[in-house]
Amino acid sequence: MAYALFFPAAVWLDNVPLTDQGRSPISINRNERSILVELANGDQRKYVKAVKNTFETSWQWLPDEDYQTLDGGAGRKTLRTLIGEDDGDSHSLRFFDRNGGSKDYTVFVGDFNENLIKRDPSTGIFMWQISVSFTEL
To answer: Are the C-beta atoms of residues 94 and 14 closer than 8 Å to each other?
Structure first.
């Protein structure tokens, strides 16, 4: 059962809200692609080709199914389906701010790790620890 939260999910992947349940803060790292050139007079100039970001986050105690999360966001199975087993496809990553605005990035999956933490035989719920990183195209 999904509960209505005050804020919608902060992160969406391919128009699917990712659950905020157990999610660690998102780390955004700036990767500048530039060339440093030394001129004839000894001055140096830096030419920036592009600035790309990498985004990293993880979830603790993420259940398998969407309906098992507190906010109805994507569980482990949906996240794995979105990312795919071994595809190099690009994805749309959207971040929402507290004022209702959003920022979209086109990314590919840099790293995806999952660890099974617990299996509950009485309820059939599997709990996972997931970490994922995305690199901007």
So the answer is: no
What the block records as the tokens of 26 is 């998102």
**pLDDT at res. 85:** 67
Q: Kindly report the number of other CB atoms within 10 A of residue 136's CB atom.
A: 19
pLDDT at residue 54 greater than cutoff 70? yes
Instruction: Find the angle CA(72)-CA(78)-CA(83) to the nearest 5 degrees.
Output: 135
DSSP string covering 96-122, please? E-TTS-EEEEEEEEEEEEEEEEEEETT
DSSP letter string, 39-87 = -TTS-EEEEEEEEEEEEEEEEEEEESSGGGSSS--B-HHHHHHHH-SS-
